[in-house]
Specification:
Length: 356
């Protein structure tokens, strides 16, 4: 990643960012900002949303118009072909997991909600049922499912898996078509091999891997989109087994940045380094960086995009719930909005809730 491409993000973040970080989590704090933090979501055992988490929109004449559920992550395809979550408020409906998949269907209800450059992933007219039991969501698709384009096959697997596994009741996904379990995808033959999970990766990038047998997978979040409409893109990369802990491996990948031809960006300068091994205790990771973490800011501040990418990436790891930063061993780190990063930063309930 060239430093010039990085500078584009830093400048945009300095002038136009509306993201606010605090110990309360990403994208929102105690005070309301331009992007409000999503409300807590609670799910019953069968994956249904509880009624108290429902809001009602009101039309101009004062009558109730549409009841919307809590924000739902829909994994769609952006203009560069990446599978990316976009958080949207969906109408109140029983069966929130199935509803989320219904909003992945082309020419369906999602069409009026799609952000610029995004498209749905499932073929038009596809219908499905979703049954959740013991952490596994079994999806039975209609015959229309088999009409997708071959080049979308892996993207469909990733979009369906990541959309469903956002719910607390779903850890794995099984696919069927017309009641018959799918051992492989019907168009290109991509093996499924039983259950799908986030461990299978998303937007997989093996471009720099010579010997995949001596590597392990980690998922990092880079920056996609354009000024005024940036969003975070998860990318699964292979890293050397020689790097013993995944946290250090993730930091290294963020510093290295995405492939130059990827159309993705990073706010990490090439000189950023960890001064000691990460410390993990009770779900909190503490990282001690050198001063290069401040990037191009004249004052000693850390960019919001850098913090967001770091926290999203690290909290994909099992057992990591929050991230604390120090620089040269000192905890007096400021965000670019001038707020002191006094508390560990937690992952947001939902990702990519709006433009910034």
């Amino acid at each position: 990643m060239s430093k010039n491409k990085k500078a584009v993000v830093v400048t945009a973040a300095t002038l136009a960012t509306t993201v606010f970080l605090s110990g309360c989590g990403l994208f929102g704090g105690e005070e309301k900002k331009k992007i409000d933090p999503p409300q807590d979501v609670t799910f019953m055992e069968d994956g249904e949303a509880l009624d108290e988490n429902v809001s009602t929109e009101t039309s101009e004449d004062g009558k109730e118009a549409v009841e919307t559920s809590n924000q739902t992550e829909l994994y769609l395809i952006d203009k560069n072909g990446y599978v990316v979550s976009q958080t949207m408020g969906l109408p109140k409906k029983e069966g929130v997991a199935q509803q989320a998949l219904e909003y992945l269907v082309a020419n369906g209800p999602v069409e009026q909600m799609l952000p610029n450059g995004f498209r749905a992933v499932l073929p038009a007219d596809t219908q499905m049922t979703v049954n959740i039991k013991d952490g596994t969501a079994t999806v039975d698709f209609s015959k229309e499912f088999a009409t997708y384009k071959k080049e979308d096959e892996k993207k469909i697997l990733q979009a369906v898996t990541w959309t469903l596994t956002q719910f607390d009741t779903v850890n794995e996904v099984k696919l069927q078509m017309n009641g018959t379990p799918l051992e492989a995808m019907p168009v290109g033959g991509t093996p499924i091999g039983g259950e799908l999970s986030r461990a299978d990766g998303i937007n997989v990038d093996n471009s720099d891997v010579v010997d995949i047998t001596n590597t392990k997978a980690v998922t990092v979040y880079y920056i996609g989109g354009e000024e005024g409409a940036y969003y975070y893109v998860p990318v699964t990369k292979r890293v050397s087994n020689d790097v013993k802990d995944n946290i250090t491996a993730i930091v290294n990948e963020l510093v290295e940045g995405p492939a130059y031809a990827s159309n993705l960006l990073s706010d990490f300068e090439s000189g950023v380094k960890l001064l000691e091994a990460p410390k993990v205790e009770d779900g909190k990771v503490t990282l001690n960086f050198n001063e290069s973490i401040y990037g191009s800011f004249e004052e000693k501040m850390v960019s919001e995009h850098l913090l967001n990418s770091l926290v999203l990436s690290l909290t994909e790891q099992n057992g990591v719930e929050s991230v604390a930063l120090t620089v040269n061993g000192k905890a007096d780190v400021l965000t670019e909005s001038g707020e002191k990063l006094a508390e560990p930063v937690t992952r947001p309930e939902k990702v990519n809730t709006g433009s910034f």
